[in-house]
Amino acid sequence: MSVPIEKALLALQLLIEGVSMQTTERITDTHRDTVLGLLVLAGEKCEKLLGPLIVSVPVKDVQCDKVWGYIGKNEKVRQPDDDANLGAAQCFVATERHTKLVLNFALGRRNQATTEIFIEGLRGATSSQEFQITTDAFAPYCSVIDNTLSDRVEFVQLIKVYRANLDGEHRYSPADVVATEVVPVLGNPDPNRICTSHVERQNLRMRM
Hints:
This protein is an alpha/beta fold.
């Protein structure tokens, strides 16, 4: 890129600290598209650096969650002839509970295909020693984890039951959780280790 390295580093530092794109654009006197291009470039370099390192990592407890977003436009305004990549997107994230290490992520549609890519990457990132994995109630996890990780995991789904909105109440934040249901899927999971709170907190930080 033609941006001076000092300005590029400043832009990345601002973004990492949670400064908005518009503010970063003003402080660095750099066009938004240039900042976005820099962010993509830095992400690709980070992935290239970390990819060969996060392999066969010994883990004990893995938590999986998804971050919702959209590319280009929201799903409800997509047109039939739009690019297939536009619209709703989910970033699947797998985190080790004790170290907070992000073992793998996959960006794509909320479907079986993205789940398969995500779990296959998780297999490569973890060692062959047994560990426990906790996910939400997303159905494709069951078949994909059974096919890909059944030789090394105790697998359980933590299903949250949400309160229905009261009549006339309009909300932009998620509904309140009123109950949880634990559904063992593979092996004999330890009830004291069933949790997705750590990856959910991390994903909230990432969204904010």
